[in-house]
Fold each of these.
Amino acid sequence: MNLVIFGPPGAGKGTQSNNIINNFDLKQVSTGDLLRNEIKIQTDLGKKIESIMNNGKLVSDDIVNTLIGKIISNPKNLNKLIFDGYPRTISQVYSLEKLLKEFNQKISIVFSLNVDKDIVSKRANGRVVCTRCFRIFNVYLNPPNSKNHKCEKKYLEKRTDDNSKTILNRYKTYVSKTKPILDYYSKKGILHNIDGSQKIDEIYHEIKGILKNIRDWHYVYFLYKFLEKI
Ligand code: AMP
């Protein structure tokens, strides 16, 4: 099954995607990570998008749709993707739909992690990411220590777009461009709203329950189809 995780910056999309991949046979695809990698290895694309990202604006639909197209077309990813930070505009929604259809797939479930502006600011301002194990921490709310993080401290980095001004821009962009597309998934009946202000474990507990339910139904469905044939 493929799923999408929505939420403003700092809502916990990356953290929860990590929790999910540790327990389900799924892979996370974060357009933010893919784009940051382009900047890190200084590709032409990276140079083009750096200032856009540092201003909290959205990179063009064509760029992200192309990146995502390469991932969906890889047979190893068939029905295994968690889309984190994509789609972010209605045009990306349609492009994703078209791409998945082309490869005989669909989105089965959408999670929206709902948090208010104050939480966004606190979470994103305190975020540090390990560049080695990719775990996400928060210096105020979930600080890295010897128990929860085994890599050396030098690998911990703050994202350049996690500063007060850019966070506010990213939040505004989320509200104006991304939030409206939740309606689309709500009408399809696959949207699950989650209170993202809860503790990490509480949020994951809710997500896990929903995913297990859907997985069980998928098994029952396939078993039924199988039995029908014999
Ligand atoms: P994220 O890591 O998801 O917070 O994304 C960081 C930044 O990458 C965003 O503020 C945008 O500038 C850019 N970005 C990530 N995903 C997308 C997307 N689907 N469409 C456009 N821009 C994106």
Amino acid sequence: MSVAHYSSRITIPQLVARKGGEPIAVLTAYTAPVARLVDPHVDAILVGDSLGMVIYGMTSTLPVTLDMMIAHGKAAVTASSHAAVIVDLPFGSYQASPEQAFRAAARVMVETGCDAVKLEGGIEMAETVAFLVARGVPVMGHVGLVPQSVHVLGGYKARGRDPKEAERILEGAVAIAEAGAFAIVIEGTIDPVSRQITAAVPVPTIGIGASAGCDGQVLVIDDVLGLSGEFKPKLARRYVDLGPLISEAAQSYSADVKAHRFPGPENVYGLPKNSA
Ligand code: KIV
């Protein structure tokens, strides 16, 4: 077989090899311009189903569809060339059976060109993870606060304070790692439990509201850029406050239009210079 083009993207085995080494930096990105900007600086781009809330203003991730994930996944892959791109499987596209999960994952992999998919869940998803990995789909797991189960959990509060729940989360992470997940997101889980999971699994853990002891960290890009308004989740750090800048730019533009200052001579088309 001849291979015409080798990608210079970070590969899934390269991410796995970072266990216990240099921390893995992951950001979400849902659009081509943002994926292009973050790509050189991160090890992986996560096209998370958080896009339902962040981009579409939904109140949870549950209404996100496979077609939405594919459209945004394709944009992120097209606009990036360095970071591995991982795309979330949305609620309802994989929980029914390993076969249903394979059909959804295959569509995502083929139609976006991404490197891997992510799905939420512990022990109950281990069989599905093994089924996908055996069929060529790299899978990132996601345990702890799993937003697709918000109605079962009763909210977005940190998990693992109760020792029995902590044990269940740990067992779930171990089960999906044993099933072949190449990495595991630990979301909203108290520090000691996140550290215990990180010590117990042979694959990188990627924390969000978890622990500095994880093998990497992920944040939602809008929280990093200051685009989430007054909503400032404890787990995130706002590195720049773009919200007021966007608002000021819109205000200046509107004022210019109303005062006939925009468009200026440099913004309009005329006849070619040599026309009589
Ligand atoms: O959907 C998402 O963005 C995620 C991250 C918060 C880990 O799953």
